[in-house]
């Protein structure tokens, strides 16, 4: 189907497995949207006209449109047909702050399980004005972040990336901001980004906003399948691959060393940049080597303090190869000029005093207890978790669909995340929900919420 503008042959000239025709049609339209050939508000031809153009039946076009709708690229409007959405402003929206509604236990937002940060902050605040760097808070800061924070952060990150150096470390307003700035610096609209078939929904939002084509690849119990990654590199020539090797969000998988090495080898062979989101690594006791250790010249390593200390601090880091440093700094400068120096100094003092490690240790101990509780209460169901993970991934019984289950939980005062916002590259999202066990205010709240989940699992939907 040359009219789709997609080639499905391997580098040796041999044919490789093709996706269904309806998905190729959806991909073709999505690519035109990403390139700006189709703009927000443009109306697509009707189903019958497109079926004639592509020489397929109307049902195939209907499935292609359904795929585009699920990706948040189009919508059907009465009297206007199917139109292109302004995905740069509207798509990928999700709730980032927990609900404070009375009687609701919000297990949909990932946040630390203890108040350790607030205790440490109360200790730091009286000393802030006496710090030698306090006077600089009134001034602009370097786009890459103050040198004192970058040095403290590089030292802290050495447990994950021993070669971390302040000269290649850049500071953003949280890991999501760092991730967005890196993508802005290394990609352009229409580039292909490879990720797992369920992945961090913040990446999905960024790719839609920047006009990047996000392709989801099959996973197994160890993460992204190397054979699928190798085939995708041959098929799509991606600009980069996004990986979450530690406590994958949402699937709660920690990638073993052998899998990391296999994926790194493939990325090297195809010269594909590795974007490693490793924000959960500080919570893991025994860590496999980071991609930034295995392939330092091909990996941008994202870290931060939101998941292990506090999201309210808004501090994230991008450790880049030297060849990309200038472009990444320029993206940070264009996006925000510089981060808030008050947050920068607060984070620096916490790092220098060892408070960050103390907070993380208390988080891990609390997570151990909560994950043990979750495993015990949901024993017998298809639950994937990790002793140090803030979340768990629950595959539902066949009697439930994820949307209905999440709605039933909400009606009982428990909020969980269904699979759809995380899902890419599949006709139907996994029939699963993410349960953020760290989000409950107390263990008693978590126990009560899991009791509701357990009760619903055992009852067929009404």
List keywords for this structure.
single chain; 462 residues; alpha/beta; seven-stranded mixed sheet; four-stranded antiparallel sheet; globular; disordered N terminus
Overview of this protein structure:
- This protein has 462 residues and is an alpha/beta fold.
- Helices cover 40% and strands 13% of the residues.
- The chain is built from 16 helices and 17 strands.
- It has helices at residues 21-34, 47-54, 58-70, 87-90, 116-128, 147-157, 175-186, 201-210, 226-236, 257-270, 291-294, 325-336, 341-352, 355-377, 402-411, 443-457; strands at 74-77, 81-84, 105-106, 169-172, 192-196, 213-217, 219-220, 223-224, 240-243, 273-277, 299-304, 316-319, 382-384, 392-395, 414-415, 417-418, 432-435.
- A hairpin with a 7-residue loop joins strand 13 and strand 14 (392-395).
- The model is unreliable at 1-16 and 89-93 (pLDDT under 50).
Strand content: 5-15%
Strand order of the largest sheet: 4-12-11-10-9-5-6
Count of alpha/pi helices? 16
Q: Total number of β-strand segments?
A: 17
Mean pLDDT: 90
Low-confidence stretches: 1-16, 89-93
What separation lies between the terminal Cα atoms? 45 Å
| Percent helix range | 40-55%
Q: Largest sheet at a glance?
A: 7 strands, mixed
**Bulk shape:** globular
Rg, rounded, reads 23 Å
Broad structural category: alpha/beta
Summarize the structure.
The chain is of the alpha/beta class and 462 residues long. It has 16 helices and 17 strands. α5 packs across α13 and α7 (175-186) crosses α12 (325-336).
